[in-house]
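Troubleshooting: if your tokenizer reports a length mismatch, compare your output against this known-good record of 237 residues.
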Amino acid sequence: MTHNPIIAALDVPTAELALKLAREIAPAVGAFKIGKELFTGAGPDIVQRVRDMGAAVFLDLKFHDIPNTVAKAVAAAVRLDVQMLTVHTSGGSEMMRAAEQAAQQTAQPFGRPAPLVLGVTVLTSHDAGSLAEIGCEPNVGQQVERLALLAAKAGLRGLVCSPLELTGLRQLLPEAMQLVSPGIRADGPRSDDQKRTLSAREAIDAGANWLVIGRPIYAAEHPRAAAEQILATLAKG
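Known-good structure output:
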């Protein structure tokens, strides 16, 4: 393991709670995810405050709009100095190309690498029934593969996908494609709203580069100990 692949989700409602959690677990994780709840409640300033701690930031807002609007949103995220951000692959090829181009062009004057624009394929809360309900291919695996190939063709360098799709995608996509897996559980699948999950060790073994871990860390009685325990299971490999 050449880097710490744990992205801890700061899925809390306020900046104060987020910063308290971040300070506690920073030594045991590789990056922090700032999602819709925290970003909406605390504003863009929370990104800067977490970056000021020296931590990498994964801004998970899942942009999905017309290409020009998404390009402007990506450019704004680059100016916030995030290291990863998300767009929905269902926005289509033109939108994804605009996002990647905006990331590259906006980062260049700052003299820093463009953030990793990650395509979100099928949310981990979906299963065949919920996909069919909204008129999509009811086979989750086939839908993920279709959108993943579309993202690769559009020039994205990374994807967000369920751990259960990792093995298949590794065989399908360029080796350089970064795969980020949410829905990670400390000890395998649970009966909650994430239907397609694996443990951290299983996901890394299946080919994940990064693991987004939320409740098993932030909802633990001792979040840092929980993060260290998960990291220890990865170090054994």
